[in-house]
């Protein structure tokens, strides 16, 4: 298990470094000079040169990358061109919105998808199966931003159960903050739940045909007990795989959803930084999100080791 963990950890570090290099280089090849944009078209050459030096834009590319990436382990992501404050100060308050939003959406998707997938798999070919998979197909096809607008129209404007936009803040209580994030989380969770439900159904159907399930049934175990105690746990590996892969789409979806619901999260900060050409903020935030996705996939790999010990010990069936 230690060897398995070490190998995945080294892979995590190398992948994160590779992602940071790609993001940094992409930011450098974009047209336009941040200093020129900050000063305007009428800036004097000496003033422009002074600001470029102040921002560190006159340094060689490798030096700029090294100065930027070495600050990441200690939480120093540089200074925002637009706000003139450390980027870490911008990230902190917004992370209190984006992280709970992503976690809530992930929990909702799992709570909806796994029971739905298992139930329709146990009733293969029935009306329940057809309706459940039909609803899942619709969920895959609906864009989350459009779903968000429908949720605002019905639950916020028509029924008045939830706020249409904005974030109440955790200082006003757990319920106030969760209530502000519930509709955005549902908009993010339902498309993901639709995908997970389809994967769960396929995995459970495959597991139900295995010999150990038939043996459990032959020993007198009820159909539901065999389904939930034997088939479902052994069908979780592909579900966990999709869950880890979809986390990146979940984070990308927050950029759109946070703008739809006017939430002050990391996604909205990225959108604003792109509009203001605050490249150092954009590259730091994108790298941070990429590192989060890589870390989640690392946790998924660790989960494999517990779900199927053969993977961590090198034993194959």
Automatic annotation (TrEMBL):
<protein>
    <submittedName>
        <fullName>Peptide/nickel transport system permease protein</fullName>
    </submittedName>
</protein>
<feature type="transmembrane region" description="Helical">
    <location>
        <begin position="12"/>
        <end position="30"/>
    </location>
</feature>
<dbReference type="Pfam" id="PF00528">
    <property type="entry name" value="BPD_transp_1"/>
</dbReference>
<keyword id="KW-1133">Transmembrane helix</keyword>
<dbReference type="InterPro" id="IPR045621">
    <property type="entry name" value="BPD_transp_1_N"/>
</dbReference>
<comment type="similarity">
    <text>Belongs to the binding-protein-dependent transport system permease family.</text>
</comment>
<dbReference type="InterPro" id="IPR035906">
    <property type="entry name" value="MetI-like_sf"/>
</dbReference>
<feature type="transmembrane region" description="Helical">
    <location>
        <begin position="235"/>
        <end position="257"/>
    </location>
</feature>
<feature type="transmembrane region" description="Helical">
    <location>
        <begin position="134"/>
        <end position="161"/>
    </location>
</feature>
<feature type="transmembrane region" description="Helical">
    <location>
        <begin position="285"/>
        <end position="307"/>
    </location>
</feature>
<dbReference type="Pfam" id="PF19300">
    <property type="entry name" value="BPD_transp_1_N"/>
</dbReference>
<dbReference type="GO" id="GO:0005886">
    <property type="term" value="C:plasma membrane"/>
</dbReference>
<feature type="transmembrane region" description="Helical">
    <location>
        <begin position="99"/>
        <end position="122"/>
    </location>
</feature>
<feature type="domain" description="ABC transmembrane type-1">
    <location>
        <begin position="95"/>
        <end position="300"/>
    </location>
</feature>
<dbReference type="GO" id="GO:0071916">
    <property type="term" value="F:dipeptide transmembrane transporter activity"/>
</dbReference>
<keyword id="KW-0813">Transport</keyword>
<keyword id="KW-0812">Transmembrane</keyword>
<dbReference type="InterPro" id="IPR000515">
    <property type="entry name" value="MetI-like"/>
</dbReference>
<keyword id="KW-1003">Cell membrane</keyword>
<keyword id="KW-0472">Membrane</keyword>
<feature type="transmembrane region" description="Helical">
    <location>
        <begin position="181"/>
        <end position="199"/>
    </location>
</feature>
């Amino acid at each position: 298990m230690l060897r398995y963990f070490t190998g995945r950890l080294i892979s995590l570090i190398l992948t994160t470094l590779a992602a940071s290099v790609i993001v940094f280089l992409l930011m450098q090849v974009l047209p336009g000079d941040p200093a020129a944009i900050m000063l305007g078209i009428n800036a004097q050459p000496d003033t422009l040169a002074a600001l470029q030096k102040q921002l560190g834009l006159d340094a060689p590319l490798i030096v700029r990358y090294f100065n930027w990436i070495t600050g990441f382990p200690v939480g120093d992501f540089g200074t925002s061109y637009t706000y003139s404050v450390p980027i870490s100060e911008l990230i902190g308050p917004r992370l209190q919105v984006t992280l709970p939003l992503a976690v809530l959406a992930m929990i909702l998707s799992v709570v909806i998808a796994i029971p739905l997938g298992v139930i329709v798999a146990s009733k293969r070919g029935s009306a329940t199966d057809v309706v459940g998979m039909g609803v899942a197909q619709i969920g895959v096809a609906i864009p989350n931003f459009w779903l968000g607008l429908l949720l605002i129209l019905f639950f916020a404007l028509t029924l008045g159960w939830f706020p249409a936009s904005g974030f109440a803040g955790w200082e006003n209580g757990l319920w106030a903050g969760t209530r502000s994030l519930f509709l955005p989380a549902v908009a993010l969770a339902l498309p993901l739940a639709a995908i997970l439900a389809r994967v769960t159904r396929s995995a459970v159907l495959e597991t139900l045909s295995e010999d150990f399930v038939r043996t459990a049934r032959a020993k007198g175990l009820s159909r539901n007990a065999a389904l939930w105690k034997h088939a479902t746990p052994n069908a979780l590996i592909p579900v966990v795989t999709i869950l880890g892969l979809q986390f990146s789409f979940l984070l990308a979806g927050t950029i759109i959803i946070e703008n739809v619901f006017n939430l002050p999260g990391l996604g909205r900060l990225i959108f604003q930084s792109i509009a203001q050409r605050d490249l150092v903020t954009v590259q730091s935030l994108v790298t941070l999100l990429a590192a989060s996705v890589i870390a989640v996939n690392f946790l998924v790999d660790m989960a494999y080791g517990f779900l199927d010990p053969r993977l961590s010990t090198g034993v194959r069936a």
